[in-house]
Structure prediction request, 543 residues.
Amino acid sequence: MAMGYSEKVMDHFINPRNVGELEHPDGVGEVGNAKCGDIMKVYLRVENGVLTDVKFKTFGCASAIATSSMATELIKGHPIGEALALTNKAVVEALDGLPPVKLHCSVLAEEAVKAAIKDYYDRHQVPYDPALFADLDEDPHGDLVEE
Amino acid sequence: MQVYFDNAATTKLSARARESMLRVSDDIFGNPSSLHAFGQAASSELQRARETVARCLNAAPREIYFTSGGTEADNQAIFTCAEIGAAKGKKHIVSTAIEHHAVLHCLEQLEKERGFRITLLPVDESGVIKLQDLEAAVCDETCLVTVMFANNEIGTIQPVEAVGRFCRGKKIPFHCDAVQAVGHVPVDVKALSIDYLSLSGHKFHGPKGVGALYARQGMPLRSLLLGGAQERNRRAGTENLPAIAGMAAALEEAVSELGEVGPRLTGYREKLINGLLNVQRSHLNGDRARRLPGNVNFCFEGLEGESLLLLLDHRGVAASSGSACTSGSLDPSHVLLALGRPHEIAHGSLRLTLSRYTTQEEVDYTLAVIPAVVDYLRDISPVWERIMREEQEKAQ
Prediction:
């Protein structure tokens, strides 16, 4: 398999789920930067505390696209609380693993979801503990040792 | 359709090279160093291969040393000149910012561990060095100038003849990494005043794991490997005769077909370049004219190279990219950055490298597939969305 990607990664890369934008979204989160080669943008529709629709747009490699696709699949239709608990590890496991040099993509996917939820809270003046989003300002490349 | 457009990475073995390898493997298994008939048959075969390679470069047979490939040849030439320079207190080397890592990593080691001063000449936006920069860079301490013939990523051909003439005038050894050029464009070591030249068998439809170093008569050459007296004491180890014979056959074939293949590939290349220039916000990397016949290299704004590469692979087109993701590092290609491409644009690069087996149908198919895949990736890219928004705002 290309680059050591699992079949699931290739499937979510070639046939990504939930691609696109939402008109008048309730929350939007964008993380990453083009200089590093990956940017993810997640759009949320929230009804009664449930993520009734989720879309994404991603600039990046195959694993960046696949992790965005999987992350949106994992949270769509779920309450915000569950989406907030999404970890990069859960995304990696759902994709049957990622090559070590690509793990940062899963961190980015987790952060894109969190950034979108934070945006929803901010827009709708929902009170929250800022500690929940403390990781968002950090560079996801920073905590991982690249090969 | 399956299209192989990654011939700068490696090429398919030619029928003639394969035939040569099988013949030598089966019939000429002796050790060229042995005195008996089996050994002498092998020795003659080795000599014939050496004569063939020499003829293709306009060199003398005794100026050709067989190696394990281009990397070893680069290492041997560079470390020889560095050793000899260091012994004379000359510890300065001039090279370019866009060399292959087989050159750059040698220079980095000499700089870090041996106290050498390294000057990497910049290139202009089309990927060509300026002779004035070379003239300004060399000094009394310069023990080597190493400049590649043609770049592996962008195919740009350097002014080798002018560099050679300048170095010869200054009596500074000139090494040329010609791994991408030999077998693709005419290479005449005498006319170009080259002192050392590296080549690699598998870049011109020969086998992998074999190459050669040309060292001009009278130029010193130190062995990287210690052992037997093979290659006139310059490269120990029993010769890989089937590979050497295969490489010689492949080179002879490639050089004899240059006149026919070069113009054909240039035509395909121009068709691909013209087609891809029609894609909005695409940029050709490297000089359009001073270019290997089979090299096409583009940046597409708003997308990332690895995903482009893998989607093309999914559609049957095998290409390459200089994006960070394909290099396994965080930075995109040093060559694209040296051209002045910003990181975000350099990430979206695509290299197509053709061969003499390339067909018109493959070119047409690729030209149909790439714009569709580029459009798709841009559709899902927030970077492209931003670029388009900014364009609209500017227009208003």
